[in-house]
Specification:
single chain; 269 residues; alpha+beta; eight-stranded antiparallel beta sheet; five-stranded antiparallel beta sheet; 9 helices; 28% strand; globular
Length: 269
């Protein structure tokens, strides 16, 4: 497969400038808006195919979203095509914990001149809209919130944190260990099939919008801080297609709706 930059840019409705920090921020924001985080494949018992051709077809040609390995692999292809120096890193998700789990989240460190940034188009509902600059000890703010990168001497990781009313909340930590193809394979399978992983057990979708974010957790849909429950298969189809801009076919919608029923959600994948 050859990465088609023009088709990718059409998919995210974006025209980039030269490789600058501002252009990198605009690129990340554009992908977050156009291509949602979604885990319908793991939720339905499938392990996502990480072959670049499969990711291209799913996210660009077929109009679906994906989770971090898919979203950030595509983002990495775009970074390379646009001339950015990007190195993949694998993070340990913390979600408020003092330490993380397995190295199972993909993002990138992008270097522009003397400055380096953590760029991430695939963490889901808590990700900042723009990359965070490494080496900055203070908070960094975008329109979606305040974030910081904190050095954790105990784990030798850099930790991304989001400010909440209760204080700083750790999202994930990462180090600069080299990442190899087998690392992707192992982490992808763990995320999709490990019984205690959230991905096979809960439906999760997120997209950045002009007004903030929309999200879906199982049957709970949130938009502009207002929550409601998905009440029918038709309602689910409408939300997936209109709010998350996913080209979900009727068969997939029916399978997801069936899986969302209480008796099915009690089952362990």
């Amino acid at each position: 497969m050859t990465f088609d930059l023009d088709r990718y840019l059409d998919r995210i409705a974006h025209r980039p400038g030269a490789a600058t920090p501002e252009a990198l921020a605009a690129l990340q924001a554009a992908q977050l808006t156009a291509i949602p985080f979604e885990n319908t494949e793991p939720y339905l018992g499938k392990v996502p195919d990480l072959d670049p051709a499969a990711i291209w077809k799913k996210l660009v040609v077929d109009g679906h979203g994906g989770y971090c390995f898919e979203l950030n692999t595509l983002f990495g292809m775009a970074l390379a095509a646009l001339g950015y120096r990007a190195v993949p890193v694998l993070g340990r998700v913390r979600m408020g914990a003092a330490t993380g789990g397995p190295r199972a989240h993909l993002s990138y460190v992008v270097t522009i001149g003397e400055r380096s940034f953590l760029a991430d188009a695939g963490f889901g509902g808590s990700v900042p809209e723009v990359p965070l600059e490494l080496g900055q000890s203070g908070p960094q703010e975008d329109r979606l919130g305040r974030y910081r990168l904190r050095a954790d001497t105990a784990t030798e990781e850099t930790v991304m944190e989001r400010e909440t009313p209760e204080g700083w909340f750790a999202l994930y930590g990462f180090d600069r260990s080299p990442v190899t193809p087998p690392d992707y394979v192992a982490a992808n399978f763990f995320c999709a099939r490990f019984p205690q992983s959230p991905f096979p057990n809960h439906l999760m979708l997120h997209r950045v919008t002009a007004n903030g974010r929309v999200s879906l957790f199982d049957r709970r849909f949130t938009s502009d801080a207002k929550e409601r429950e998905i009440v029918s298969e038709a309602d689910l189809a409408s939300v997936l297609r209109k709010e998350f801009r996913i080209a979900a076919d009727d068969r997939t919608v029916a399978a997801v709706w069936k899986r969302l029923q209480p008796e099915m959600m009690d089952c362990v994948s």
